[in-house]
C-alpha cells in the first residue's frame, strides 16, 4: 500500500505510549494498534485531528505517500 502510517514514529518522538494516546484520543487500543501497524483501510478526519492534537503534529507527520 502506498500510504505509510508513521504513527509509531510520532509517538516515539513525543515519548507517548499507545495507552496514553488511546486515552487522549478516546479510541480503543485495538483500533489505534491497527492504525499504527498500517493495517487500517481508512481513517476519519475527526480521528486524525484528535491524534494530531494529542501529538502536537500535522497530518503529514503521520501519513506519507510512497509509490
TrEMBL record:
Recorded coiled-coil stretches: none
Entry's Gene Ontology molecular function annotations: DNA binding
InterPro entries (UniProt xref): Cro/C1-type_HTH (IPR001387), Lambda_DNA-bd_dom_sf (IPR010982)
Gene3D superfamilies reported for this sequence: lambda repressor-like DNA-binding domains
Domain of life of the native organism: Bacteria
Pfam families in the cross-refs: HTH_26
Residue intervals of the HTH cro/C1-type domain: 7-62
Protein name, entry field: Putative transcriptional regulator
Provenance organism: Chryseobacterium polytrichastri
PANTHER family listed in its UniProt record: DNA-BINDING PROTEIN, DNA-BINDING PROTEIN-RELATED
PROSITE patterns attached to this UniProt entry: HTH_CROC1 (PS50943)
